[in-house]
Amino acid sequence: MNTPPFFVGVDVGGQSIKGGVVDDRGQRLTTKPAVEFTESEKGQEHGLAQMAKVVRRAIAEAGLTLDDIAAIGVATPGTMDIPGGVMLEPVNMPTWHNVPVRQYIADEFKKATAFQNDANAAAYGEFWAGCGRDAKSLVLFTLGTGIGCGIIVNDFVIEGEHSHGAECGHMVIEMNGRLCGCGQRGHLEAYASAISIAKRTNEALANFDGPSSLRSQFMKQPFEESDCSRIFEAAVAGDPLAGQLIEDTAQYLGVGAVNLMHTINPEMIVFGGGMIATGEWFLERIRFHARRLAFPVPAAKTTICYAQLGGNAGLIGAAGCARQLWRRR
Amino acid sequence: MNTPPFFVGVDVGGQSIKGGVVDDRGQRLTTKPAVEFTESEKGQEHGLAQMAKVVRRAIAEAGLTLDDIAAIGVATPGTMDIPGGVMLEPVNMPTWHNVPVRQYIADEFKKATAFQNDANAAAYGEFWAGCGRDAKSLVLFTLGTGIGCGIIVNDFVIEGEHSHGAECGHMVIEMNGRLCGCGQRGHLEAYASAISIAKRTNEALANFDGPSSLRSQFMKQPFEESDCSRIFEAAVAGDPLAGQLIEDTAQYLGVGAVNLMHTINPEMIVFGGGMIATGEWFLERIRFHARRLAFPVPAAKTTICYAQLGGNAGLIGAAGCARQLWRRR
Fold this sequence. Notes:
- The structure is a homodimer.
- Chain A has helices spanning 44-61, 101-109, 118-129, 189-192, 194-206, 215-220, 228-236, 240-261, 280-293, 296-301, 313-328; strands at 6-12, 16-22, 34-37, 69-76, 80-81, 86-87, 112-117, 137-143, 147-153, 156-157, 268-273, 303-306.
- Chain A is an alpha/beta fold.
- In chain A, strand 5 (80-81) and strand 6 (86-87) form a beta hairpin.
- Chain A binds chain B through residues 79, 136-137, 151, 153-154, 156, 158-168, 170-175, 182, 184, 251-252, 255, 258-267, 293, 295, 297-298, 301-302, and chain B through 79, 136-137, 151, 153-154, 156, 158-168, 170-175, 182, 184, 251-252, 255, 258-267, 293, 295, 297-298, 301-302.
């Protein structure tokens, strides 16, 4: 049973905008989110209108009206001014600049409106209603094209003083190391994101003469981000080169986990995103390295697990931020 | 003018225990702290009695009586259970085990008693009454034998779920890199602590045939932690080898700063401890590397500065934690 208050959460991505209504415990009222294409090339006014359309559709699909909604939360990607409620220069929406998301939604619906970074929102979603619902603190790494991160301590989102909190994919783990997509070197993301796994695979095959089940595909075309699952599958099937690449990836993610265990020391470190489809054995390898490399107490006591909310973490977390705002009023 | 409420802060070290009384704005009532030797070899009961002696002396030297004191705070080193108020296995007090510091002081003085890690307390001292008194968030690196760290966000000390928050000296900045005193590899502390600077200097001299003003001393005896100031002096005097060693140190500290700028994204990153006697030029080199390696927004907006409270940061911060406790009651 879902009982009021209800909150709308919206998760804005480069391709699509997803929204849903959740109740006071973070449970969604509909199985499927309301979705619209972002169509960012049509400009930011259109993008804002699409966000509003998603809010209306989410409310209607939940069988509710606007009067039933206590507050709205919107999560967006890219550089932003979180306290100001503004998207600055989102890299996936190249024509958008200084988009006043929070003000627009608040004016459109006359509701208290929360604004949050999408990776922070996903972490808050897992903290509130996912794998961390019984935890006091949590760090979420979302493994995808890049590595997103969110940090929640005692129901507080570490947004950072300049809205750059929890950019932990851009921690240096190897000085002067691999080039990251951001232009700097040695970041976790340059080792363990999906793109980085594909790149490391191409480099390994180019520098290795031995047999590998990955070679025939590589000869046709270098591995790309979307081929990552094949590299994991080859590792499972016993291909030694793929096995080493995936084991190295687990180690890099273990190092990333340790750096957060020695900084935030959260109750849980959570991994989410496409890579977790790989299954429990990959998580076990991450755990192995994190526990080997951490201080004994956090090594023994930190829960390291997979995320539970999948692609809905962001919208549930955005709704959770709306709930935080509403409760504080 | 110092007006009530007054708080006692105590900073317990391996060699000595320092205490002082501060007012509601973190101003000390006496210029010099009350000090007793820890004499840890005499056992933990003696150590607890010494802490109590320091509390009494600090109150007396401030011209007050126990009735004037609102609360007491004690900061200690080593592994601990912060919520439990217990020192576990402090490395510098080898015979001490599970020392119930908070309970002992609370029973002895019948006052609300706060307990905190010494590096966290120093960070809180700088946040409350030092260089960060106008800031909303701050990370303090204390450069000494090791690298201590404390993180304060919105008046909240990041203690960590298992009392291991802000062990940022033990962030990995170089996988499989230099051996750290803790037994793991590649930690910031293994590159930029005073001991590490001495070790890197010895290694550089052993692997370098050219002239260096450091060589004559090295030929007599390898550099030790206490010789660090000479390496800085040689760098200032133009010795190229020393210059490179110190420039590398600034870069390592810059990387450490960046990893916190991309995790906590605090308003200020503060460096304290013996190394800051070196002067503003060394800080400027740390700033240079941090700004070069960070994202543009935190690079432009994060204040990077030296600490202001010197060796009193810990006791002032311990008193500040006592004030937090007292205000919440």
